[in-house]
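For the sake of transparency, this paper describes our internal protein records without simplification. The record that follows is passed on verbatim for readers who wish to inspect the format:
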Amino acid sequence: MPEKVVSKSTSKSNNQPANIERKKFWNNDMEALIGIMVVLLILGTINVFSSSFIIAEAEFDTPYFFLKRHIINVVIGFIAFGCCFAFDYHVWRRYIPIVLLITIICLVLVLFIGPSVNGARRWLPLGVTQFQPAEMAKLVAILLISAYLAVKVQAQRKIDIATPQMGFIFIMFFLTEQEPDMGTACIILGVPIFMMIVVGLEMWKLRMMIGAVIAGAIIMILRQPYRIDRLKVAFDPWSDAQNIGYQTVQSLSAIGSGELTGMGLGVGVSKYDYLPEAHTDFAFAIFCQENGFLGAIFVFLLFAALAVYSARVANKAKDTYGQILSMGIMILVVGQAIANLLMVGGMFPVVGVPLPFISYGGTSLIITMAAMGILVNIGRQGEKEIQKKILAGEQPPPPSEFSLEPSRK
């Protein structure tokens, strides 16, 4: 008993928290984020092969066609992650104009020289592979609005709606919608709007923005007849189960047939030409069919943990820009996951939003991993700043508290 008292008092005398000896899965939030990402990538790689080997064999005479490409994309993604992790996240603030210009040029080019697939032009041909500029526009929009909001918060000024930054974001939104790709376009515009609301938007401006978003959504839906049809059957796909509602019905059938533990890896039957886009937008339906309810819950928990640790990184960021940028990345990754899960589960219209790390998709995966690299860099610098404060005798902020305070530097 005396030894325990001495140990406890020694810990206090060294200004160490009482629970420092408590065992953890990881040493800090950055390790947690990397660990969660790696687990999701492993699950995604297994699922990509399991959901694609039938169509790969039928169309390309090899069951490994999509798996090989996916692994290449994962490798490139890790390179992008490493680069973004190594560079100070403030670098992106300086190079936003260049990255923005390149993105807009690519979005324009894709409308003219991009190959048409199912009536849409979304990819730029790059020899043996393709590049989807709209995926890059998602991250660029977050970088752009984060820089603007950080200046406003630091200066304690009110946030405006009509700004050059929102103008450029709207240009990217418009060009993406012209492809047409309404789902990605809504993310490009929606995430920055959500960030403005979280940071703090006056009520009358919020009402005005909500009204504009609703009006814009109605116009976009009316522009394309198939969007109206999708909206009609969104909550009752069985009303047109053999046509517009077919994909949702097959998705729900795949999820339900998985029951508690699933049919087993590779055994799911819905990929046999029953469920369209089984390895891309609806990859989670195949995952549920083969891994069951328990597998689905595990994925839910991983994304929930990703949100929690991202919020912790945002709280510990060393400046306002880091806080807002990490919050935006969290909204982008977790928000897309929520949208995809709702879509696959028949609770949201089919809008073509991939499930991060799980769905097959080159540019989407690479950009998401690059965004995670920026997030981990923010966390690493925030952790260093906290250690400096501890050494200087200052009290660091509690990890559960999130605030956007103007920087005092």
Q: What stands out?
A: Residues 283-316 form the longest helix (34 residues).
